Amino acid sequence: MGSDKKYCQVAFPNTRTKEEEKMIKAMNFRNVMVLAIAVATVATMSHTTAATEYVVGDDLGWTVPPGGAAYYVSWAANHSFVLNDVLHFKFIEGEHTVAMVTKENFEICNTTNPIFELQKPSIIGFTASDTYYFTCTIAGHCAEGQKIAVYFAPSSNTPSPSPSGAPPTPATSLPPVKFVENQCQS
Ligand SMILES: [Cu+2]
């Protein structure tokens, strides 16, 4: 998907900037001006439409937290999320996974039948306001505290629920998530 690739570039600006600098040095002044305008335009457009990306666990990333489950409970409590935001689960591929599970399975650390499971570091967005439950499917990691519940509030751009109060019936059983990126860091 084109939008995914664009987001990937936005998520790793340092690499892109170096490439651009090399390109700029190789060009004459007139082309530099054209490029600079183009880059500025893309940057502006990206900025106005980009979601806030939260790295789950900040510097710790997505792992078994040294202090146990309280770490991610605290992290989630100290952040607030709206639907346009995305969660970046950062971990070393093969050492952890990120799996969405039901509330019930989250509480008892049943990882045998996740809603979905990703083996690579991933950026995930959400399309419906709700509380989402994530854990790692590596044996023992959930019980050791690698689990997080995150509430996503409706964004200002999100249409209000129907005034009748009747919850909309999902057309399919697909989870209300969008996989913004799960290939960039492989
Ligand atoms: Cu793990």
UniProtKB/TrEMBL annotation:
<feature type="domain" description="Phytocyanin">
    <location>
        <begin position="52"/>
        <end position="154"/>
    </location>
</feature>
<feature type="region of interest" description="Disordered">
    <location>
        <begin position="156"/>
        <end position="176"/>
    </location>
</feature>
<protein>
    <recommendedName>
        <fullName>Phytocyanin domain-containing protein</fullName>
    </recommendedName>
</protein>
<keyword id="KW-1015">Disulfide bond</keyword>
<dbReference type="GO" id="GO:0005886">
    <property type="term" value="C:plasma membrane"/>
</dbReference>
<feature type="compositionally biased region" description="Pro residues">
    <location>
        <begin position="160"/>
        <end position="170"/>
    </location>
</feature>
<dbReference type="InterPro" id="IPR008972">
    <property type="entry name" value="Cupredoxin"/>
</dbReference>
<dbReference type="GO" id="GO:0009055">
    <property type="term" value="F:electron transfer activity"/>
</dbReference>
<dbReference type="InterPro" id="IPR039391">
    <property type="entry name" value="Phytocyanin-like"/>
</dbReference>
<dbReference type="InterPro" id="IPR003245">
    <property type="entry name" value="Phytocyanin_dom"/>
</dbReference>
<dbReference type="Pfam" id="PF02298">
    <property type="entry name" value="Cu_bind_like"/>
</dbReference>
<keyword id="KW-0325">Glycoprotein</keyword>
